[in-house]
Specification:
Number of strands: 11
Shape: globular
Helix content: under 10%
Distance between the termini: 12 Å
Strand content: over 45%
Structural class: mainly beta
Order of helices and strands: EEEEEEEEEEE
Radius of gyration: 13 Å
């Protein structure tokens, strides 16, 4: 499970209906909220067994994070690689694109961006 830092009480989930990701309440029982990390913390792939796909970054400052079949990312294999950022004082670590470590995974609500 990947919890949201900005939206406390929520977790990051793949969608059963499309390729996008969503935040759902922590208490929601949903197989689409389960992630398997393949690789070390410094470079890994996130696989969602319910979706049978991997998480991918599409690039750019406000690039989407989507679910794709392994090896089909818009940015090539680097778009499917992630790393964990440095640990914050409250214990959380940002999920970052390996191809651009300055890009944390964000959840967008209306016009407000929040780090996950």
């Amino acid at each position: 499970m990947i919890q949201s830092g900005a939206f406390r009480g929520y977790k990051l989930c793949a969608s059963a209906e499309d390729q996008y990701l969503r935040l759902k309440p922590l208490l929601a029982a949903d197989g689409y909220c389960t992630w398997r990390q393949w690789g070390a913390d410094s470079q890994f792939t996130l696989y969602n067994p319910a979706k049978d796909q991997v998480m991918a970054y599409t690039g750019g400052n406000e690039g989407l994070v989507v679910m794709v079949d392994s090896g089909t990312s818009p940015l090539g294999v680097n778009g499917e690689l992630w790393s964990w950022g440095g640990e914050e004082s409250w214990g959380a670590r940002a999920l970052q694109s390996f191809s651009d470590s300055g890009q944390n995974v964000d959840a967008k609500s209306g016009t407000v961006n929040r780090s996950v």
